[in-house]
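Let's do one together. I've listed all components of the complex below, 103 residues spread over three lines.
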Amino acid sequence: MHDEGNFPHRVWQIIAAIPFGRVATYGDVAQLAGSPRAARQVGGVLRRLPKETTLPWFRVINRHGRISLQGDDLLRQRDALEAEGVEVSDDGQIDMRVYRWRG
DNA sequence: TGAATGACAAATT
DNA sequence: TAATTTGCCATTC
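Okay, and this is what the predicted structure of the assembly comes out as:
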């Protein structure tokens, strides 16, 4: 079935293009995917990724420069980002002026 | 087929 | 300035 142009596939492609050590917002990914108002759906796609995915899902954060996940998932995302040089302050804030990638 | 869901974002209090 | 509400829309059930 020809499902290469559907929304999830476009989201995967865009996230795969986020450079090492950079981040993008859900809204940015949605816009690049051609649906500027579908930021929420981007989260929906990432939410269903298999746990063993190679996609750099952790490079996607919200527009406030903060991680949207909670609990253990939040800790894992923060560690993954810091592991590639993205600084996350004690209160979970990331400097978007430095790390944000807009395509 | 339609209601429910939600890793967001903008508007409103 | 921070908390709450409203709008949003692809996917799931």
